[in-house]
Design a protein that fits this description.
- A 4-stranded antiparallel beta sheet has the order 2-3-1-4.
- The chain is an alpha+beta fold.
């Protein structure tokens, strides 16, 4: 849609673990990045990891940015993000060994409804 690049950009990453211990290990490895983002990225409107209420092996990482450009030009080039990503690439074998399923989808908000009050 025209003008989407100026709309709020949302990214959802879906993970399915085979064991709660593997899920918890991932969450703890993500925690320092989340804390850094909260303290240093004012254009990151939300950055939260959620565990499904009906299946403790399913996790969603919900990311919300002022624009897609902010996501690309600020968040994705930050040193903590690049370090986390590098660790994740090194852990690719860990994910394969643990049979972690990962998928994702990005979205532009429509401004129909609301995200907070």
């Amino acid at each position: 849609m025209a003008g989407d690049e100026e709309k709020v950009f949302v990214l959802c990453v879906y993970l399915k673990f085979q064991a709660v211990e593997h899920r918890d290990e991932f969450i703890e490895s993500w925690r320092p990045l989340a804390e850094w983002v909260k303290a240093n990225e004012p254009g990151t409107l939300a950055y939260e990891i959620m565990v499904a209420d009906t299946d403790p092996l399913k996790v969603v990482v919900f990311e919300r940015y002022v624009t897609k450009a902010y996501f690309n030009d600020v968040h994705r080039v930050s040193k903590p993000y690049l370090e986390f990503k590098a660790r994740g690439e090194q852990q690719g074998q860990w994910r394969a060994d643990k049979n972690v399923e990962v998928s994702g989808q990005s979205y532009f908000e429509t401004s129909i409804g609301h995200m907070s009050r």
